Amino acid sequence: MAVTDKNGLVNDNELLVVYMPNSNKAMVYRVIARQNRGFERIDYGGIPTTAGQVLNTYDGSTNATGYAGELPARSYTAGITFPLSGVWDSTDMWFVPYTWNDRVFHVKTHITPGFARVGMQIPRGVNQSRFQKERVVGGVDQSVGFGYNFGEMETVHLPEIHYGYTFGNDTNIDLRSGVKFVYGEYYVKIPNSASLIFDVLSRNYPAHWVGLPVSTVDATITQGLKKTWGFDGFTVYPNSFRTNAIAEYGAILGSPDVTSQGVLM
Amino acid sequence: MTSQVFTIHATTNTSGCLNDGVSSTLTQASGIMFLTSDLWSGNVVNQSDALGAGVFRIPKGCNFKIWENTLYGAPATVMVQSSSDGYGSSWTPVKTDTNPTVNGELVIKHGARPIIIQSPDGNKAVRFLYNVNGTAETISGNNNNIYADYTVEVVESNLF
What we know:
Order of helices and strands of chain B: EEEEEEEEEEE
Number of strands of chain A: 18
Order of helices and strands of chain A: EEEEEEEEEEEEEEEEHEHEHH
Radius of gyration of chain B: 15 Å
Oligomer: heterodimer
Largest interface: A-B, 24 and 26 residues
């Protein structure tokens, strides 16, 4: 059976890997169940810009939105979150606190028009896009041409971290925007098996991998992971490191910081 | 990535309105057409653009494809041009359609081979020019205006 369904979301009782390139560490989750099974779409509406909001342009000036949800000509946004009433943090619908360590949100964001740029800041306000180590900065706001996608983006929202979505329009036209989320609210546990963790991270056991676009070590991410699950990830090793890796993973799984969180299964 | 298929409604109607019931009469025999679409706000291209109305700048790293178009108003010619040397300079013809039929419409479909304009550096733009094959007052139908509907697609350039 496939690990993911037709929407690219992880099926029940399959494994999800969230990989962080900056640290070569990964979180491994078993998706116990998907809370929103059968209803995976949120038609959010326009991007959360407000009428009269001033955005920077690729030409070094500014441009103001004509109405809420507009992406003005030649403009890009800073890292923004999606407000929603009734959620834990009404300014950010994807944010949950560290006490929600049984939940992760697997989110695929689609924007229309499909030629709008979409980028990600993890955490919000930190541009992680780099080329040749730290030499060249990329991102939605840059004219260099990397560090963003067109029209869609996939990520996994972890507790205790605000992610910043960035959008850009390098045409000369004020665009009407529309955002759709295809998401899974997963009830998760961390597998309490060091050998299984190794088999997953060495690609010998099927799982769905999502890499977070993080290129630099940021304390917010490390602290968020430790606060939520008691550790900041399993180091990814090659096959030849099996014995040492399993011993290391076992120590993590058996540590009081992790066992006290009640996150293992 | 997600490509975007949409319709560009090129018009000589200076109010930029999509309503074909507008009664304004074409007075210029040639010029740049205004562009409207459901994708952008306000029904007209940003009037503050340095090149004036009627220009669509293709996003960097994308291709602009013309799949089919319909021309209303005759006798008239509509020409699609792309800028070939930086944004907004050295306009080059890309396709030209002539509708000779009074009170008729001209439908052109490109099938599996769309017209493609590439914008690797983000400085390419397209514009739509009209030319009345006669005097402006000879346009018949459509309240004496020329309309051209283009089904286009903007797609990331490495996807064909």
